[in-house]
Amino acid sequence: MAVSDSPLQSEAETRRTLATRLNGWVQSIPIAYWVVGAIMLLMPLIANDFFLYQIFGWAFILGMIALSLMFLAGYGGMVSLAQMSIAALGGYMVAILGDSGATSISLGWPWWLNVPVAILVAAIFATLIGALAVRTEGIYTIMITLAFAAAFFYFTRQNYTIFNGYSGFGDVVPPRLFGVNWRDAIPFYYLTLGCATICYLAVIYVSRAPFGLALQGIRDNPRRMAALGFNVVAHRITAYTFAAVIAAIGGILLVWQNAQIAPGTAGLPAVIDILVIAIVGGIARPIGPFIGAFIYVLLRTFSPDVLQALSMAGDRYKLLIGLGFLVVVYWSPDGVLGLWDRWRARRRRRDPLVDKPEAS
């Protein structure tokens, strides 16, 4: 009679299986990703505080908010213009529930309580938006989410009891944990880098999970997926909820970076900026929003100086951003990543040995 494996042998086999899968996953990551990751970790050694805090920190934050839009549009086929409003609501809730300069309104809850509640409130708000938006398609979805964004902006500006009206909230700073001031350049850089990495990996994981695969199937053919037994409406609404968590994290970090939040944070220009960032970088892949955010932040930061050097009004930087957006969309609807793919394809046609796999 055969003797069954002992628990120790089963546990050893399980560990070997997990180690094999982990090794295969690590080997599947392109070398370029490891190089970029190493550069990001070592960036404080070569960049000054301004670049760490204002350029990279801001780019990571906007990239997370645009990533939530990319998830909805790229995997779900739903373009939402309410993501900046959802992010702003998360920031507002941190200011209202935590500490701020408006002591008559803020409740002073500890960070470990107000941050999760802020994310939860933003997720509920996005779920309500999704419950209405998913029943429409195309331009109607865009218009509904834009209407929510406009309504949120005017409501926060006119409401003084909860949102403190036009003035908003000031002195909203991150908690001082482990004796570290997280608004200092290097700690804030690593905080935003860590959150951006977690959000990026979460999107990658969900896109390959059964829910993400079903969502992509619904994007391509909702009628067939419904015939197969999938609840199309529930999947789409859940996608809005998941995207809201990412947007809310970005919104909280944005408030901590600026130490204040006002209705202008969720104004219509900011709403459109998130759409521009996602499209310029590439709305089909999760890395695209971060590329678009980095380009946007560079233009937003340095274009006024360039315009003033050319004896032009510095406030016309939006013109340069708009022209850059038109150029990228005209030459590549897939954004900067699409241009990169076209360049690689052209290079392979010229040199067949490029990217040729090595013999085992």
From TrEMBL:
It holds the Pfam family BPD_transp_2. InterPro entries: ABC_transp_permease, LivM-like. It is a multi-pass membrane protein. The chain crosses the membrane at residues 31-48, 55-75, 81-99, 111-133, 139-156, 186-206, 237-256, 268-299, 319-340. The keyword Transmembrane helix applies. PANTHER family: ABC TRANSPORTER ATP-BINDING PROTEIN (PTHR30482:SF17), HIGH-AFFINITY BRANCHED-CHAIN AMINO ACID TRANSPORT SYSTEM PERMEASE (PTHR30482). The keyword Ligase does not apply. It is found in: Cell membrane. This is Branched-chain amino acid ABC transporter permease. Keywords: Cell membrane, Membrane, Transmembrane, Transmembrane helix.
